[in-house]
DNA sequence: TTCTTGTCACCTAGGTGTTAATAT
DNA sequence: ATATTAACACCTAGGTGACAAGAA
């Protein structure tokens, strides 16, 4: 079984409609997809990987509405049918293959995974269409030592899906609240914080920033079960 | 077979008497120990590791002599018998185990290896006695798939020694020329360069800095054979 | 109007020798 | 006198969103 780490933060983003930046050079995800794994055979080899499947066959566009955040408090509209599918790449966790014991003894982090909108990317990054919705998937492959292991491919393969990690791929943020939550929670964006340069999120006081309440509430985030 | 990378730089340091800093927290080596590997079975698994053996059973001390570099152009004197041996730790290359094909397709770099003088170190760093001379060794272990693989430990094990990588462990540099060569060649020490902030060593003109001539001369460093 | 691209200041994270203070 | 330690300024390396300019 698999537990999603930082579930509270994922939930907070998901509630607003998570957006992930895609760039030509490749951009990491934030939050980072991280899991705790249980129940592996400690001595057996496993490959861990991720891929991304379209949530629907739609292309989205935004509508800028005047409001508190001029030109930024915008809403998503369906713009038509999805663009042709991108190359369905997968990202192997760089430690693959490794023993079950190795995978289970610490959080597995996919922080090397990068998203790009460059169809000709040759860095092995995940290629996505901007303005489309995606569902990350996590796969565990048992490395079968048997010679005819191909026959057992089905049973040596397990997929885990966390719906709260769905997101829209964008080249620039469309929802200003998403931007603010990224700035508030991603250490690398600390330069854009204008509130107290306090040690958020570590000592964040519940209620101080309504938007981030869910994240603030859970000091010991409870991981969610995966749809398997 | 194995080729030492940056042999020319190693030679230059070795000619002056290489020194490596050891700290409580652990310090990387410079130059970094890097090798190119040939002749592995591409499909077989190998473990790569390093250890460090005393070159002699002596403890050294320095004698400060007045000169061009006051209190720094010093010479090594034998100070007596070696201190009790440190725990003989080994450093496994973090990618171990991996297929021969993986190891051979690029330079293998031991840049995660750190040296410490802390006998109680619990970070898995290599523990060395300061003011003692050491010989780095590089080991290749073939992961034998046979059940009784222990019996073949001898033949599944190969050790490579490059004498030009010998060094004295120190807590502070003793030879000012070593300091200068480190500053000149280690990118992380660029802040201490006072000569032209030019792109040394890339475009270094042979002869301009006599001390670094050997390194400057070889644009395509020839690797040295290992004593095996 | 909407979306994409490239550059930038500002961060995180961590590898350098220097230096002054301390230990032996 | 010699050796070690810890704090420090200054780097490398690379992850942020802002912003202005360009493209569709």
Account of the protein in words:
Two copies of one chain form a homodimer. Chain A is an alpha+beta fold and 228 residues long. Chain A is built from four helices and 15 strands. The first copy, chain A, has helices spanning 7-16, 100-104, 176-185, 213-217, and strands spanning 2-4, 19-21, 27-28, 34-37, 45-54, 58-64, 74-81, 91-92, 98-99, 108-109, 114-116, 126-127, 133-142, 157-161, 167-170. In chain A, strands 2, 5, 8, 9, 13, 14 and 15 form a seven-stranded mixed sheet that branches. A three-stranded antiparallel sheet of chain A has the order 1-4-10, with no helix packed on it. The radius of gyration of chain A is 19 Å and the shape is globular. In chain A, 25% of the residues are buried. Residues 67-72 and 197-225 of chain A have low confidence and may be disordered. The chains hardly touch. Chain A binds a DNA duplex (24 and 24 nucleotides) through strand 3, strand 6 and helix 3.
Features:
homodimer; about 230 residues; alpha+beta; seven-stranded mixed beta sheet; three-stranded antiparallel beta sheet; 4 helices; about 15% helix; globular; DNA-binding; nucleus (chains A, B)
Overall number of strands of chain A: 15
The major pleated sheet of chain A works out as: 7 strands, mixed
Total number of helices of chain A: 4
Can you tell me the overall shape of chain A?
Answer: globular
GO molecular function (chains A, B): DNA-binding transcription factor activity, RNA polymerase II-specific; RNA polymerase II cis-regulatory region sequence-specific DNA binding
GO biological process, one term (chains A, B): anatomical structure morphogenesis
Protein name (chains A, B): TBX1 factor
Subcellular location (chains A, B): Nucleus
